[in-house]
Amino acid sequence: MKRAALLIVLIAVLVPAAAGEDSSYYGIPAGGIVNDVAIAADGRYMVAGTGEGSIVCLQRNGTIAWNVSAGNAVTAVAAADAGNYIAAGTDAGEVLLLDERNGNRYWTASVAGPVRDLAFSGDGRALAVGGNRITLFDHLGAERWNASIGGSSPVSPITTPVVPTVAFTADGNYIVAGSDNGAIHFLRRQGTRAWQALARGPITAVDVSRDGSVVAAGGRDRALLIYNREGGLVWAMPTGAPILTLALSADGRFAAVGKEGGDLECYRPREGLLWTNRTGGDVLAVDISRQGEAVAAGTAAGSVHLFSGAGNARWSFDAGAPVTAVALSRSGDYLAAGAGEQAFIFRTADVPVPAPTGPAENATPVATPTRAGGAGALIGIVAVTAAVAGSLFRRR
């Protein structure tokens, strides 16, 4: 009887542990080339938008929550920190607001030209859109205003400039946008322009601290530019190569910069370079956690890299195709990435080891975990428990 009781205790302890086990990452076929990804602030899910028009929501447990079609190639996606909203933009100029829980569409609106970037206010009640103009919608789908970005700059031959990058302050008071005529725009939520600055080349990326006190911009002119809320250029740092992407921590104390040629750099604005790492390919995407604890990068060589805030390499992952987008959760504990036709969500605390693959016939695509979990682990534990039981009873 004592041995039987021991067996019951063993099953009671091990089986729930197996059922609750999850994997360090999941990857799914997204139904087309992934152009952009976004992640919930708490890391509960990620969203990918593809060139075939799919918008896919993958939960961090590997479940595909929903998959809907936008009808045209999806060029940008965003997840609101509040309000249960997902936004998507298309190359046909459509802006969609979706329910994060089921993918149902709240509304669709249109802007001039393809949508190139999207940004929510912190409360999720306003959405800034970068396209041929800068446009602001409220959460009900009403267009509040749109602003011209002006003509070509004296140093650029571009005659029809566009806005490839926008950012919204967490307090919802300011919007910053960069255009490929070299202009950096800082607008109030009401649509009035607080200030405008001009770089020496096309702007590829902008970001802003939560309160708008730090504005970062970078582009083809090989310089990281830092402005204050009043529009003063308080710091300019030569980077030696064109900036392809950048991200600011929420407090503006750290700026992560991805460059052509493969360097990932982290700066403390107004002070200097903190660290640099070589990634082996042009850095196409970068993100930083809210407090700067983690920095993620995706490269044209097909790698996803994760670093600590101090610049120490935590892990890298071969995604098998150029990594076009990455996004970190608020605290950096989950990471979303898009590479080729695959969408990934990682738990950053664990090194992602690709699952072994083999030939399969009539297979249905599903989320691919890194190690056995759930039912697989349960079967293994039952087998081990049975062996232990046999040994126990044979000794009687």
From TrEMBL:
Domain Pyrrolo-quinoline quinone repeat: 52-212
Any Pfam family: PQQ_2
SMART domains assigned to the protein according to its UniProt record, in alphabetical order: PQQ, WD40
InterPro entries: PQQ_b-propeller_rpt, PQQ_rpt_dom, Quinoprotein_ADH-like_sf, WD40/YVTN_repeat-like_dom_sf, WD40_rpt, WDR55/POC1
Record keyword Membrane present: yes
Transmembrane segments: 372-393
Keyword set, alphabetical order: Membrane, Repeat, Transmembrane, Transmembrane helix, WD repeat
Superkingdom: Archaea
Name recorded for this polypeptide: WD40 repeat domain-containing protein
Originating species: Methanoculleus caldifontis
